[in-house]
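#help-structures
NK: newbie question, is this the right format to request a structure? protein is Glycine zipper family protein
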Amino acid sequence: MMKNPRLPRAALPLGLVVFALAGCAALPPSGPSVVALPPGGKPLTVFQQEDYACRDYAFRNDDAGQASPGALQSGAGTTAVGTLGGAAAGALLGAAGGNAGVGAAIGAGAGLLLGGALGAHGSQVSSESMQARYDAAYAQCMASKGNRIAPPATTVYQTAPVVYAPPPVIYGYPRPAYWAW
C-alpha cells in the first residue's frame, strides 16, 4: 500500500486557512442582554407576545442577518492581506539569507496567523456593536409597550483584605547547647 506524501503537505496549509477564516465570522445576536419586566397586573401571555414582537423588531431593525456576511468578507480580506504581506516580507528576508522560498513560506504562515487574529478581533468588535444596537431597539420597543427595563447590574470589585498570620509555633525539645556556636 502506497501513501500519498502530498496529502499531509496540502492538508496543513488548507487547515490553517480554514481555521483562520472561522474566527472571522460575526454571529448575529441570539437575544437581548437586557432584562424587561412586565408592570403589575399584565398577564404573562400578553408580556410574552410583546417580548416576541420586540425581539423580531430588534432583529429586523438591526439588520443583523445582513451584517454577518460583511464581517466575514472583512475578516477574510484581512487574513488574505496578512498572508500576502507576510509572504512578500518573508521572501525579501529569505532572499537576503539565500533562500527566498523558505522565507516566503515562513512569512506567509506568520502573516496568516497575524491576519487571522486581526480578522477575529474585527469580527468581535462588529458582533459587540450588533448586540448593542439590538439591545437598544429591544429596550425601546419594550418600554413603548409599557414594560420596565431593569438597569444592568454593576459589578463591584474589591481587593481582598490583607491577613497577617503569626509565625508558626514550633514544639519540641530545645536544641542542645553545643549546637549554638
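mod (FA): yep, format's fine, and the C-alpha cells are attached above. The CA atoms of residues 139 and 149 lie 7 Å apart.
NK: thank you!
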